[in-house]
Amino acid sequence: MKKAERMQWEREQKLSRFVQIAQEIFFQKGYETTTIDEVAQLAGYNKRSLYHYFKDKEELFLAVVLNGLKLFNEKLQEAYNNPIEGHTKLYSMGKAFYNFFIEYPHYFNLIMTYEARNCIYYPAQISNDIGFYKSECQKIADSNTELILKAIECGIQERSINTNLSPRQLMVILWGEVFGITQIIMMRQTYFKEAFGIDHSELFERFLLHTEKSLKNHI
Q1: Cα distance between residue 168 and residue 51, in whole Å
Q2: Within its chain, how far is the Cα of 99 from the centroid?
Q3: For 37, 78, 88, 180, which has the most beta carbons within 10 A of its beta carbon?
Q4: Residue 197, phi-psi category: left (phi > 0), alpha (psi -120 to 50), beta (remainder)
Q5: 217 contacts 104 by C-beta, under 8 angstroms
Q6: Confidence band, pLDDT 50/70/90 cuts, at residue 151
Q7: CB neighbours of 44 closer than 8 A, spacing ≥ 6?
Q8: What is the CB-side half-sphere exposure of residue 134 using CA atoms within 13 A?
Q9: Smallest Cα–Cα separation from 97: which of 113, 114, 80?
Q10: Using an 8 Å Cβ cutoff, are 100 and 64 in contact?
Q11: For residue 102, what are the contacts with CB-CB under 8 A and spacing of at least 6?
C-alpha cells in the first residue's frame, strides 16, 4: 500500500471509529448529555483529533443520524416498490415505519431529535453552506418526503385515496397521526396490553387498516 493510500485508509478508519463510538453514546444518552470529550476519550484519541473530522457535536450527531436515515429510506423504498398484496403503497410504508420503530428504536429516537432540531421543511430556510452531514441528512429526509407524496399521489390516481386535501396537506396529517401513536407506544410500552386490552403491534395494524379504509371513503 502506497503512503498516500495508507494515510487515506487510516483517515477513513479513524472517521469510522469516531462515528461508531458516538453512535453508541448517543444511543445510550441522547443528544443533550453526550459530550465531545467522552466520544474522543472512548475512541482512544484526544479532542483535537476529533475536531479534524467534525467541527462540533452537532456535526458528529448528524453523521450518526445519516446512518439511521439511510436505513429508514431503504425500508421505505422497499415498501413502496413492493407493496403488500391487497394493500396500498401507503399502507405498506406505514408497516415499514412501524417495523423500523420497533427494530431500530435508538435510530428512531435520534431521527426524532433530528426532525425537531435540524430538519428543514421549507427550501427558503436552506443556506448555501450548511455542511456536508447536514446537507446529506436533508437530502435523505427530502427523499423520504417525496416518496410518501408519490405514494399518496399514486393512491389518488388509483382511487384508493379520495380527498379534498393536497398530497402535501394529507401527508402532514398522516405523519402527525403516525408519530402520535408511536409516541404513545414509546411512553406506555410496558403493560401496554394490560392497560389497553390490545398489543401495540395489533393496535398499529388496526390503525393502518382504519386509515386505509377512511382514505378510500373520503377525507
Answers
A1: 39
A2: 12
A3: 88
A4: left
A5: no
A6: very high
A7: 17
A8: 17
A9: 80
A10: no
A11: 201
pTM above 0.85, yes or no: yes
Give residue-wise pLDDT tens across range 98-146. 999 999 999 999 999 999 888 777 664 555 666 899 999 999 999 999 9
Determine which helix (DSSP H) or strand (DSSP E) holds 8, and give its type and residue range.
helix 3-29
List of domains in the chain: 1-54 (1.10.10.60), 56-217 (1.10.357.10)
What is the 8-class DSSP label of residue 126?
-
CA distance 79 to 184: 24
What DSSP letter does each residue of 62-120 carry, written as one string?
A: HHHHHHHHHHHHHHHHHHHHSPPTTS-HHHHHHHHHHHHHHH-HHHHHHHHHHHHHT--
The letter for the amino acid at 195 is A
47-74 pLDDT tens trace: 999 999 999 999 999 999 999 999 999 9
User: How many residues would you count in the chain?
Assistant: 219
Q: Which of 188, 169, 180, 168 is closest to 207 using CA atoms?
A: 180
User: What does the alpha-carbon distance between residue 171 and residue 152 come to, in Å, rounded to a whole number?
Assistant: 8
Nearest C-alpha neighbor of 133 from the set 64, 180, 192, 74:
64
In the predicted structure, residue 182 carries a pLDDT above the cut 90:
yes
Residue keyed to cell 429516537: 109
pLDDT at position 69 is: 98
